[in-house]
Design goal:
Length: 157
């Protein structure tokens, strides 16, 4: 179970929600995932994202899989994973950050989301707390992450 932030390439003439509705309408949970087929422009976006996150955030590990590209932060304040598929990107944070640690990791996640927005033109939204990543408050997201993390530690351990 992870805290998820989504970034999407909003289709011309559509809202973020309309774009998501179209993506979800095409989703088949029983089908195999489509193989990653990035355009040259998308590959360039990924390279810029990877370089900038490494420069602005710090050391990351990256890998390429048949279905997407991924990067993970290395070191404090905690692991943040980004999965890039060209027109969609997901940021995942494990529910392991109660209290003040949650703010540090959410500030990191929002910085990464804003880098992705800058370098790719994708639009980010944190549906966990109902706010855009461009203008949203990482503190609000941290309160949610902290609350669920605390609950999980007390009830699932």
């Amino acid at each position: 179970m992870t805290y998820d932030i989504m970034l999407v390439r909003v289709q011309p003439g559509l809202t973020l929600q309309e774009t998501l509705d179209r993506l979800n309408a095409d989703f088949n949970p029983d089908a195999d995932l489509p193989l990653l087929r990035l355009s040259d422009a998308q590959r360039d976006e990924w390279d810029r994202i990877l370089r900038r996150v490494s420069r602005d955030i710090g050391s990351v590990e990256s890998a390429e899989y048949p279905y997407g590209l991924t990067l993970e932060t290395v070191g404090p304040p905690g692991r943040v994973q980004l999965d890039y598929c060209g027109d969609t990107t997901h940021i995942e944070i494990a529910y392991r950050h109660p209290g003040p640690a949650a703010l540090e990791v959410m500030e990191l996640a929002y910085r990464i989301a804003r880098i992705v927005e800058d370098e790719s033109g994708l639009t980010g939204h944190d549906f966990e707390v109902g706010q855009p990543t461009r203008t949203g408050d990482p503190g609000k997201a941290a309160a949610r992450l902290s609350g669920v993390s605390d609950w999980a530690q007390h009830h699932l351990s």
